[in-house]
Amino acid sequence: MKRYAAAMLFFWLFISCAHATSGRVKIGPLPAISNVSPKLEKSLDALRVRIRSTAKDCIEAAKGMNSVGEYNSEIKKMVDTSKAIVLQVSATMICDGIHSSSYQYGIAFEKSTGKRIDLNRIYNIAIRRDERLFIRPELADAVKSSYTKANENNQSCFSDADWQDDLTNLPITFSPQSDGSIVLYYAAPEVFAACFPALRLEPSALYKFRDANQASQYELP
Q1: Contact residues for 17 (Cβ-Cβ < 8 A; gap 6+)
Q2: Cα 21 off chain centre by
Q3: Given phi > 0 = left and psi -120 to 50 = alpha, else beta, which region is 34?
Q4: pTM
Q5: What's the DSSP call for residue 219?
Q6: CB atoms within 10 A of CB 132
Q7: Residues forming a β-bridge with 116
Q8: What share of the chain in percent tops pLDDT 70?
Q9: Euclidean distance between CA atoms 38 and 130, whole angstroms
Q10: DSSP label at 164?
Q11: Segment holding 58, helix H or strand E
Q12: pLDDT digits (tens, 9 = 90+) for 45-66
């Protein structure tokens, strides 16, 4: 744990320098995580490297357009058990000096090995096509209800005749929450990304698909 604490200190020093140099980059720290093995530490370091690389690409793209880029990223803990950690990675950015964009995704690791956990093997809420996940048709009504609630004050999100088809045709990632619900992150085009904040599936919609044996293996809800 001392080695991990030292790595975290170095990370904060790096971020402080990056922010001072560019004035536009802010990458939040990792949340407190229990039982961090050396292999998990390596995977978390690799995750931070990917985030920093994305931030660097954004800032360089803006410089190429004679603009000042902005990049703000955050890593949030969703579920932390003795066997697994589930994180939410989010970022907002301006890579051309004008237009804002954002992303969110869920990622899970096994603590002992540091390996990625395929959450869909546990929760079975999506169909895999071309290495991407799409919400299964049986859950379309539950997702529609969440989408409607999330956009109740933004009627423009219902003006496109294809919005209901998008719920099952846009790729997703997801993460479980400690109460047994699922948070969905849609990879929606920027033109209507505002209509796709993180959506939520209630536990009652998931029990039919969840593999209880695999969930217990990682102590996941």
Answers
A1: none
A2: 27
A3: beta
A4: 0.85
A5: T
A6: 13
A7: 109
A8: 90
A9: 32
A10: H
A11: helix 38-64
A12: 999 999 999 999 999 999 888 8
Give CA 173 to chain center in angstroms. Answer: 7
Within 8 A by CB and 6+ apart from 149, the residues are none
3 state SS of 89: strand
Strands 100-110 vs 182-186: parallel, antiparallel or unpaired? unpaired
pLDDT in tens, 69-101: 999 999 999 999 999 999 999 999 999 888 888
Q: What is the pLDDT of residues 22-33, one digit of tens each?
A: 448 999 999 999
Residue 125 has pLDDT above 90, yes or no: yes
Domains of the chain: which residue ranges? 2-110, 120-175+194-217
Whole-angstrom Cα distance, residue 8 to residue 184? 29
User: For the chain, how far is it from start to end, CA to CA, in angstroms?
Assistant: 27
2-110, what's its fold? Heat Shock Protein 90 (3.30.565)
Is 187 within 8 Å of 171 (Cβ atoms)? yes
Q: Which helix (H) or strand (E) holds 26?
A: strand 25-27
